[in-house]
Amino acid sequence: MGFVELLKDVFTYKQSAPLIFTQFYFWVFFAFVLSAFGLLIKQKQRLMRTGFLFLVSLFFYYKSSGMFFLLILFTTLIDFNIGRWMSQTEQQNKRRALLALSLIINLSLLVYFKYAYFITQSINETFHTNFEVINYISLIFNSVVGTHFQIDKILLPVGISFYTFQTISYSIDVYRKELKAVNNLIDFGFYVTFFPQLVAGPIVRASQFIPQMYQEYKLTQYQFGMAIFMIMKGLMKKIYIGDYIAVNFIDRIFTNPTHYSGFENLAALFGYSLQVYVDFSGYTDIAIGIAILLGFTLPQNFDSPYKAQNVANFWKRWHISLSTWLKDYLYIPMGGNRGGSVFSYLMLSIVLLFVSLLIGYWWVFPILVLFGLFSILLMRRYQGFAKAINTDINLMLTMLIGGLWHGASWQFIIWGGLNGIGLVVYKLWRKISPWEHSTKWIAIVWKIAITFTFITFTRVFFRAESMEIAQDMFHQIGQLLPAWSDLEYLFTDPLNLKFVQQWRLIPAILMAYQWVFVVMMIGFVFHWLPYKLKNRYTDWFIALPFYLKVLVFSLVVFWVYQSISSEMQAFIYFQF
């Protein structure tokens, strides 16, 4: 490859090769960023340092999502100016109008890119029309600039859900006067585009991040040790565990469940619970480590979620930045556990509209609305009952909208709905459960097992490409249980019963996929280790002399990359 071709390869976007943390090219990019950043620190030019990180973050996003970096620039410019205009007026009506403008622009872009196909297809099926999806943004660019972008296809910008929620939270916080508007466009642009967390979170609040820009850069020995430990841990999670079990087992089962036994389907389902955790938390670990090296602290996004003893506690431990965002900007404004509100009924109407479009019949929506209005009238008559129902509605709506945030399909609706039902059922069960406050180890293990199993089975809908695949998986798993027709032969000819034959396959399956199950076991064991033990080996690593840290880090990373058995797998949450 010639020098010109090399430069072109380095500086141009390739859809088939986005810039991700697990690629060697990313670490070359980061080494350059860190070196140049170190020179700027010595000059103590804060704005120059921020501007440099803003530019390299834009380049990172360009390499990850192509020309969509113009979209994130547009969003940045809009919300920066709206925040300034809000801070310059005390008139509540103007502030409310500006907030509405920010919400409309941000959510319109999110809906356009993420739900255009779903809405168009649903309208066509419901009203028997023939509308086609047109990429109006590409059409405008082609007309104005003379480009030749494809206009009959809308691509999803990487990370649009994350940075949209980030800018929305900024506008709301400025409106609530919980945060002063940023006066410098470079500072605000850097906050929106900071590359470690840009494309897959965590969702960073402006109140957490922006004050750090004005602090003097500091990297203690402890912080350095923690940073490279987090990067090392994230790479191990993603490549050694997540990618290995996905490529060699899970992806095969989810592609065609009927070709595999009930046990293989069940193992793939539990394996996917591990994969999605190590994949997403691995990304977050790497992002946190990189941010520390650059002098910034990102919020914790996971707290050993599979140690949760109930569904409510699970959602306090899983994707914490999204869970707290939904709580602060959706659940509480809808009324939270205090009752209903106009906002909650508006959100209910939007969700009912989405469900009606998914069903494909226009008359479903008015029927659902009439049923909702009838329920509201009943709740007005019975106030005590109404408060409990409204709280449950708020919980369900929050989880359903959380499901829709991931994508517009029945699978995500059902996944969000099941988790909402889990929260409602737990809220009722904890009032009568004799084990709710038990500290006995057997009760704790039982509660963790029940919670983990429930969360795992909801993930069928999160992972499956279609409802048919989800149904096939449940059917295959169901073969592990005896059917009614088997009962009369249970004692006369048990070895020939279908469910018995399924169980007899298990030893052969374990041997066939022995290394997959070994890696899965390693992943689960490390996850369920006590906090004290985890803190002990973390502190041991951090306390090592510098040269030993680098040596251990290098050996582990070399070992991890040697385990790669296929092309690099993109992080699961890139698609959101």
Number of helices: 24
Structural class: mainly alpha
* Share of helix, binned: over 70%
Low-confidence stretches: none
The total of beta strands comes to: 0
Mean pLDDT: 82
Radius of gyration: 26 Å
The profile of the biggest β sheet is: none
SS strand fraction: under 5%
The backbone outline, from C-alpha atoms, is globular
H/E series: HHHHHHHHHHHHHHHHHHHHHHHH
Cα distance, first to last residue?
35 Å
Model description:
This protein has helices at residues 3-11, 24-43, 46-65, 69-87, 92-127, 136-144, 160-175, 185-193, 206-213, 221-255, 262-293, 311-317, 320-331, 342-359, 364-381, 383-406, 410-429, 441-463, 467-478, 498-504, 506-512, 514-528, 531-543, 546-562. The chain has 576 residues and is mostly helical. It is built from 24 helices and no strands. The longest helix is centred in the N-terminal third of the chain and has 36 residues, at 92-127.
Please give a quick description of this structure.
The chain is mainly α.
